[in-house]
Amino acid sequence: MTTHGEAERWHYLLGRFPKGRYIAVSFCFENDAGILPSNSKFPSSVSTSTGRPLPERPSPKLCRGGDSEPPLTIAHLLPDLLNLYGDRGNVTVLRMRCAWRSIPVSVFECRRGDEIELPGVDVLFIGGGPDEKQRVAHERLMAMGGQIRGFVEEGGALLAICGGFQMLGRSWVLDGKPVEGVGVFDAETRRATNARKRLVGDFALESPLSEAPVVGFENHAGRTFLAEGTQPFGRIISRCGHGNDERSRADGAIHRNAIGTYAHGPLLSKNPEIADFLIAAGLERRAERTGFPASTLARIDDAEELAARAFMLGRMRLAR
Ligand code: GLN
Question: 65 CB less than 6 Å from ligand 1?
């Protein structure tokens, strides 16, 4: 049995291993390690699988901003239902990148039976899940639909992966039939009409939110179609990979500061620009909520993250 500290450390490192290995580890977390408590602490030192310490980062303090600085509040919605392929690692990355900058953070896990007040939240995260878990999650998300739409329209930062992205569209498919979604994104998810059942594998994107290519891993049966005028999260630039469907070469959607994508992975461990986009948008929201000014994000040495991305790009035969 993995301890919470170990599980969290491994989640942070997931993006650094070849795909086969991190998928296996992610599954093992869902089944064995269970759900990390929202107040669990990071280990004070983090080392790689080879035992070598990670490079020094600026201000490696944990959640210790100025006394008067209110925490950036991150809510992880339904981690007990929606958490595939290391999706939870995205929340860990957001926490770590704030901690390295001495930005205080609090993370709430809002599980199936929990209530949450989104007016107090700055960054919202929703992972992906298998169909049977999506069924239960759908009910909860629809019950919170007005709050979630309001949060996004007010400029709150949101990241939704795969099944989470599908359910935030206008409609998606449950038990083979179209059902209404939360409606954050003007997008419809339908069933595949061809023989190819699932879209599985790595992909690289060109995204307006990152100067460098964004890399991720997809595994889904649903095909998502964006309404005209809806901006995709990115365009597929790798030979492999599909994103929303087989034809459009688009992945995900962007609406205000909300991102939907099919990229599991976890996405943010290999794409620090996207993590920082969410943190910066979250800090703007915190400023509006609390009056505490949002400052420019301090630079972090992203050598490890960029090496992980370069590895993936190399595997897809794309220039690094
Ligand atoms: N169950 C959904 C599908 O297969 C989403 C899967 C996922 O989140 N990876 O389309």
Answer: no
